[in-house]
Amino acid sequence: MFGDFMGMMGKLKETQEKVKQTKERLNTVLIDEESSDGLLKITITANRELKSIAIDESLLQDKEQLEDYLVLTLNKAIEQATKVNETELAAVAKEGMPNIPGMDSLFK
Q: Using an 8 Å Cβ cutoff, are 107 and 20 in contact?
């Protein structure tokens, strides 16, 4: 029994390291999002760090329109980044979980 516990602790430590590596890798995964008409383009990492914003000159004339574009496009980018982030981290966590009956449904 003690050997099983030590094996599980080793697997947990290995999984923690894989999660850390995955988080670091997600800093390099870029997600591009743009407004429906292409006037605003956003690049964000899968860890939801904003990398760039490109604004068409025409949007600079109307403050309210620009604000609306920023809110909508940033929210879409953050939603995409969150999906990628959660999928990647869940896969690593599931891989590192011991085989406990009933627990597999938590990571689907």
A: no
What are the tokens at 97?
A: 């979980």
User: Both tokens of residue 47?
Assistant: 């860890």
5-38, pLDDT tens digit by residue? 666 677 778 888 888 898 999 999 999 999 999 9
Alpha-carbon 3 to chain mean position = 36
pTM, full prediction:
0.73
Structure tokens at 103: 């627990």
CATH topology of domain 14-99: Ybab; Chain: A; (3.30.1310)
Give the span between the Cα atoms of 42 and 77, in whole angstroms.
Answer: 7
Instruction: Find the helix or strand (DSSP H, E) in which 32 lies.
Output: strand 30-34
